[in-house]
Amino acid sequence: MQTLQGKVALVTGAGSGIGRANSVVMAARGAAIIVNDLGAASAQETVALIQQAGGTAVACIADVSDAASVERAFTAAQQALGPVDVLVNNAGIPGGMPAFEDIDEAAIDRMFNVTVKGAMLCTRVVLPGMKQRRSGRIINTSSITAFGSHRRGSVYAAAKGAIISLTRAWAREFAEWNILVNAVAPGRVQTPMSAALSTDAAYAEEVRRRVPLGRRALPEEIAAVVAFLASSDADYMTGQVLSPNGGEIM
Ligand code: NAP
């Protein structure tokens, strides 16, 4: 397991779930963490968890879908901790939606603004520094829904599919600056986003039936894959999609 000592990692949507786990796990491996989220309280909780364990972190409050907010907050955070070596585009919103014909335009816009435009805006801010240093890691967060795993949630699936396309296109475009771009496409993960499902007996049965490992992932099990992609163990990986999904998609 390679260390992330001396690296600065920025994780979006890091006040909860997978983003928080990404932050805590990379901090434990030595990275200083810029903890982005919409909410100051949740971001500060993640910062406190990292600091209590002896790590370094600052909060960075910004809506990833708002260019001015991203530019302002990311610039201030980089002044505090240094230029970003690793960007984890993780912020997302729940994908559960009504039948397709009942989904309104505002919900479609919100999904694409946070998931796709958000990843673009965040990447745009850290990219010039990575190019200048000829080094960087960008790790995007897709989902197995991008592979058609779920019966509902086509808007979420389309946005997560776009994340895979962006990952591959950026990997090719940024390779000459030694900026490696990969994605994780998690299966079902126990986080606040999916909290309502935890007490749903039919859902638990579906997990047993469809997931060979018979359970959902813990956020830390996704974070371990992200930390690998951030590390020098993944120096020859770019344009790849790693899918920790308990075998649900093979
Ligand atoms: P989560 O617990 O709901 O965490 C998402 C975080 O993103 C929340 O703190 C949320 O803040 C923040 N966020 C939402 N919109 C934002 C914005 N515009 N700007 C900045 N932060 C924003 O969700 P999660 O389950 O950890 O999911 C993390 C990522 O993994 C998402 O991209 C999700 O699609 C993906 N994923 C999750 C699963 C799963 O089963 N959980 C499976 C596959 C992929 P608020 O709480 O204040 O809204």
UniProtKB/TrEMBL annotation:
Transmembrane segments: none annotated. InterPro entries: NAD(P)-bd_dom_sf, Sc_DH/Rdtase_CS, SDR_fam. The keyword Oxidoreductase applies. GO terms for biological process: fatty acid biosynthetic process. Its EC number is 1.1.1.100. The keyword Oxidoreductase applies. It holds the Pfam family adh_short_C2. PANTHER family: 3-OXOACYL-[ACYL-CARRIER-PROTEIN] REDUCTASE, SHORT-CHAIN DEHYDROGENASES/REDUCTASES FAMILY MEMBER. This is 3-oxoacyl-(Acyl-carrier-protein) reductase. It comes from Cupriavidus necator (Alcaligenes eutrophus).
